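Changelog-adjacent note: as of this version, every example in the card shows the full chain rather than a window. The one below runs 446 residues end to end.
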Amino acid sequence: MLPADASGGASVIHAQVAVCANLGEVYPVTFGEWQQLGPEAAAREVLRRVEALLPLSQRRSAIAALRSLEALEAAFDASPKSGPLHGIPYLLKDLFDVRGMPTLGGSSFLAEVRPVPPDDSRIVRDLSAAGAVLAGKTHLFEFAWGLTGENAHYGDCENPRFPGRTSGGSSSGSAVAVAAGIVPFAVGTDTGGSIRVPAAFCGVFGYRGVPGEARITDAVPLAPRFDTAGWFTRTAGDMRTAMAALVGLTSSDRAPRGCYLEMPGVDRDVALACRSAALAFTELADEPARASLQEAFSPAAEVFGVLAGIETWKLHRKWADKYRARYGPLVQARLDRARAISPAQVAAVEPSQATALRAWGDYFKSRDFLVMPAAPCAALGTQELSPANRLRMLGLTAPASLAGLPALTIPVLLPSGLSAGLQVVFSRPDSPVVGWVLQACGHSSA
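Full-length structure tokens:
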């Protein structure tokens, strides 16, 4: 239930989210509306929306593959009616396998060095069992190694509401598909912020799971120690339904306790909007908590870069030289930096990771969730996709990544019409925080 002093503030979030969710709306949008369609109508609607809602250039950079009308209709028809996600179409980030379909991973050569998958990934099987219908696959930042939605091979993935600005990444195509209204649900991954950042930039809800879950271990890896699976929805109600079906919602006899942590380096308009939205359902961190958490989190971007970089190099060193010309320039540069990471550098940052882990552990002894901005700025323009801005993003997302913690991203509308986001970090995927926060956004369980 809502805390007694937050009901008015929750309506503010409801209004903000409703604006984000209804921009560019074309029927049907929500899970429930899709479930009212028969198999043929639903199949035709998915394909119609791809063409109607994305210009050709954006379509090419966001959509990796689509099922045919006949295959879609058969899939809708076969969707188990008892499943909680019966008849819900979704798109899948192209790091996950679909039987008989090459997995590209945003790369120009992965399909050549990896066999065509003989089986579906675990998350595809789970979604099928729940009744969801796979409509196709989405493009991503090459090998998921970036937050800015760029891809030298398939095109940079633009924000569907603001052409010329990025969607964020690496789960670029999945966020775009949901934000544009093509499908109400899409699967992504988040290693260092690749669900949280595009959710904020595109004005949608996002969920990041935890490393080591079965739903991520059979995906094409980036840095297995930090990789997580997750998904996007346009509404809090749909996110609640997805969470109930795929994770399980729990409740508590008390309202969860948390606070909002203001972080340095956030643009003024984003800082003001995020603070206002967060204080609608929680309180501002007191001075001791603010000081200790900011100090523990301040080196997180650098620490994450080293620890994730060394893991990614272990995976790519077998390809790095042979296929160097087949990597895009951004990933080439990151491979070169990762190759140069020394054992001494790893040893030097490990104490900082331990400090961050202790800070999270101490915090969760008395609190249930921590709210922070999900991104330091609104969706960036092409000329703003710089290493400095990437570090600013990682400064906000890396603290939870280093600790392997799950998070919800809630969209926040800015006065400019662009969007930001709040990341609500909690200790375990089935925390009562999930249902409580989604209710606090002003939506029912439906």
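Structural remarks: The chain has one domain: 7-287+370-440.
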